[in-house]
Amino acid sequence: MRSSFHSKSILELLIEVVLIGVGVFLGLLANQWHDDRQHRELADATLRYFHEEIVVNKQAIERVRPYHAALSREVGSFLQVEGPKTTQRFRSVVDFRGVEPVEFERTAWDLALATQSLSYLPPKLAYAISRVYTRQQAFQTLQNGFLQAVLAPTTFGAPDATGFATSMDMYLHDVNIQEPQLITLYDQLVPQIEAATPKQ
């Protein structure tokens, strides 16, 4: 009688342990599923933000491309003309409406870093996005450096425009290389983002 009661207690204890173990396992599984779902939703939202921002940045470059190409040709022509290269002559030869730097959006990138959502994207895609934003940042640095070093309120106060025109010519040479390269990177990246983004 006592042995039977003892056996029953052990059996009940084993059942309780198994049930507790199953409960903990199911709880962990549910928690993991919830985390995975949150990560997927965050990754999907991040991809949509990147897509929107990259399209905006591409349009910003395309808007100034014709002006930068024409400005480069005109500055080059000014530097090749015979005679003194005066500021007045620069204004007559070059249709200068300012440098018109590209203003890149980077909110999606900053948000992805803050939420660590890049880690939820496929590694190859995350690398491609990072590469584009690194190139954008390098181009932004080039633009800012030129604006700070060359353009000032007294830039056109000097009678000789040779130094300014030479600096601008070198700057525009880089600009007219980097802008098309960025557009190519955007064109390569957008389909990758679209393929990875679930249809709504």
Overview of this structure, please?
The protein is mainly alpha-helical and 200 residues long. It has one domain (41-196). The chain is 78% helix and 0% strand. It contains five helices and no strands. The protein has helices at residues 2-80, 87-93, 107-115, 123-149, 162-196. It is rod-shaped, with a radius of gyration of 30 Å.
Largest beta-sheet details? none
Oligomer: single chain
Shape label: rod-shaped
- Report the span from N to C terminus: 67 Å
Radius of gyration: 30 Å
Strand/helix succession: HHHHH
Low-confidence stretches at least 5 residues in length (pLDDT < 50)?
A: none
Structurally, the number of domains stands at 1
Binned strand content? under 5%
Question: Could you outline the blueprint of secondary structure elements for this entry?
Answer:
Elements lengths: L1 H79 L6 H7 L13 H9 L7 H27 L12 H35 L4
Helix pairs in contact: 1-3, 1-5, 4-5
Short summary:
The protein has five helices and no strands.
Q: What descriptive keywords fit this protein?
A:
200 residues; mainly alpha; 5 helices; rod-shaped
